[in-house]
Amino acid sequence: MNDSNSMEDRLVVSDILVNRHRNHVLRVLQTHGTPMALTTLSMHIDEPGGDAFESVVPDGGCSKTQLHHQHLPKLDDTGVITYDPSSRLVLSLDDERLDYLLERGEEMLESLRRSRTGAK
């Protein structure tokens, strides 16, 4: 893997893992599968007792507008999901791509641990 791809992967991993909203979207899609309509995804996210997006909208949930305009397009750009904005449908979740990015994330964390402890 060349350095430019590696840096791009690091940025993608950071964006997915750090953003709790996108992280939760991925958990819902892994649990319930695809294809999934935006309305259905939003309902799963806002289920009582679920891991709702606190403080994103006044009632504690994440709006469909935020999912449609921000989170789902961003995940689509990473290649982890395929989202069709015109039909408001998550068509697929690419488990292989997600696993690859999670492995990169684990490598990043391990590298930080080694740097922090001075180990090589």
How would you describe the overall organization of this protein?
This protein is mainly alpha-helical and 120 residues long. It has one domain (3-113): Orthogonal Bundle (Arc Repressor Mutant, subunit A), CATH 1.10.10. The protein is 62% helix and 9% strand. It has helices spanning 3-18, 20-32, 38-45, 64-78, 95-117, and strands at 36-37, 81-84, 89-93. Mean pLDDT is 84; it is low at 51-59.
Tags for this model:
about 120 residues, mainly alpha, Arc Repressor Mutant, subunit A, 3-stranded antiparallel sheet, 5 helices, about 60% helix, about 10% strand, DUF7344, DUF7344 domain-containing protein
SSE topology sketch:
Elements: H1 3-18, H2 20-32, E1 36-37, H3 38-45, H4 64-78, E2 81-84, E3 89-93, H5 95-117
Antiparallel strand pairs: 1-3, 2-3
- CATH-derived topology: Arc Repressor Mutant, subunit A
CATH architecture, by name, is: Orthogonal Bundle
Total count of helical runs of at least 4 residues: 5
Distance between the termini: 21 Å
- Unreliable stretches, pLDDT < 50, 5 or more residues? 51-59
Question: In total, how many beta strands?
Answer: 3
The percent range for strand residues is 5-15%
Radius of gyration: 16 Å
Topology order in helix (H) and strand (E) letters: HHEHHEEH
- Major beta-sheet overview: 3 strands, antiparallel
Main sheet: which strands, in order across? 1-3-2
Global mean pLDDT: 84
Helix- and strand-based class?
A: mainly alpha
